[in-house]
Design a protein that fits this description.
alpha/beta, Rossmann fold, 5-stranded parallel β-sheet, 4-stranded mixed β-sheet, 19% strand, binds guanosine-5'-monophosphate
């Protein structure tokens, strides 16, 4: 059985990551997805167990204490973390998994599982467009938007630590998802991952 890989996609808030990841999952139905745990309150339209496992700080800290979290971070005052159980379930089936997480967590996963992790940073084409997208969502108070914008700019500065950087041009999410699909295909064809197939010829 081929080994599944972990594709970590980070994108500052407003990079359009949600839409791109949704498209990607439609393009590759076998791609696993991890529902993160968070202490932030659900936004209108979000469902517990689908968008996130929403929980109290106390419950999140219990998960941490019990070693049930693969990576986590505190982001704009709330905890977010990937549950080991979510990732293990998918990888045990030999499927790839996509983790839609911010920079801190992405780098934790990369250093924990360097051979099996590919990091992709998704960015808006420029700063003005990023701000427009953040304000356009209209679900957050101005103070929260400013916080997210600052954090987003900090995150883009860390792009150098990623394997790939993909821009998400306005109204071209499909093209962006296609680029990530190419990355997924190419990563599976790296020599070190194809070695068993090549070795068959060595006899
Ligand atoms: P939001 O509140 O907009 O849903 O998410 C805020 C940020 O947290 C986004 O950058 C999102 O990718 C990130 N995030 C979501 N789940 C996780 C997680 O499990 N771990 C980490 N490290 N970041 C996460």
């Amino acid at each position: 059985m081929k080994k599944g890989l972990i594709f970590v996609i980070s994108g500052p808030a407003g990079s359009g990551k949600g839409t791109v990841v949704k498209l990607l999952r439609e393009m590759i139905p076998t791609l696993g997805y991890s529902v993160s745990a968070t202490t932030r309150a659900p936004r209108p339209g979000e469902t517990d167990g689908v968008n996130y496992h929403f929980m109290s700080r106390e419950d999140f800290l219990k998960l941490l204490e019990n070693g049930m979290v693969l990576e986590y971070t505190e982001y704009c005052g709330n905890f977010y973390g990937t549950l080991k159980s979510e990732a293990e379930k998918v990888l045990a089936e030999g499927r790839d998994i996509i983790l839609e997480i911010e920079v801190d967590g992405a780098l934790q996963v990369k250093s924990l599982l360097p051979d099996d992790t590919v990091t992709v940073m998704l960015i808006a084409p420029d700063r003005d467009e990023l701000e427009r997208r953040l304000r356009g969502r209209g679900t957050e108070a101005d103070e929260v938007i400013v916080k997210r914008l600052d954090r987003a700019i900090e995150e883009v500065a860390l792009a150098e630590k990623y394997d790939y950087v993909v821009t998400n041009e306005t109204d071209r999410s499909e093209e962006c998802a296609n680029n990530i699909r190419s990355i997924i295909a190419a990563e599976h064809l790296r020599y070190r991952r194809m070695k068993d197939t090549v070795d068959i010829y060595r006899g």
